[in-house]
Amino acid sequence: MSPTNLIVTKLDETSSFGSMISLLARFKKGVSYVTTGQSVPEDIMPASPARLARFLFEKRLGG
């Protein structure tokens, strides 16, 4: 079995996204869903470049 996309979890619990970005680039995998909290299913959402960028910058800037 070879996944084509991944689910990225616990984005709310990290302050560093470098390892995640490096792994995604290295293995050339897309992200289907992300989780940003403990509440299921409320905190599971479809991934998109805009959503990931917004979350990364909001987290980085303390938003």
Number of domains: 1
Strand order of the largest sheet: 1-2-3
Rg over CA atoms, rounded to whole Å, is 12 Å
**Based on CA inertia axes, which overall geometry fits?**
globular
Largest β sheet strand count, sense and barrel closure:
3 strands, mixed
- How far is it from the N-terminal to the C-terminal residue, by CA? 39 Å
Q: Number of helix segments?
A: 2
Q: Mean pLDDT, as a whole number? A: 86
Order of helices and strands: EHEEH
Q: List low-pLDDT spans.
A: none
- Percentage of residues in helical conformation: 25-40%
- State which percent range the strand residues make up: 15-25%
Structural class based on helices, strands and sheet pairing = alpha+beta
Number of strands: 3
Structural features, described:
This protein is of the alpha+beta class and 63 residues long. Helices cover 37% and strands 21% of the residues. It has one domain. The chain has a three-stranded mixed β-sheet, with no helix packed on it.
Task: Please render the helix and strand layout as text.
Elements: E1 5-8, H1 18-27, E2 30-35, E3 44-46, H2 49-61
Parallel strand pairs: 1-2
Antiparallel strand pairs: 2-3
Sum this structure up briefly.
The chain is α+β, with helices and mostly antiparallel strands.
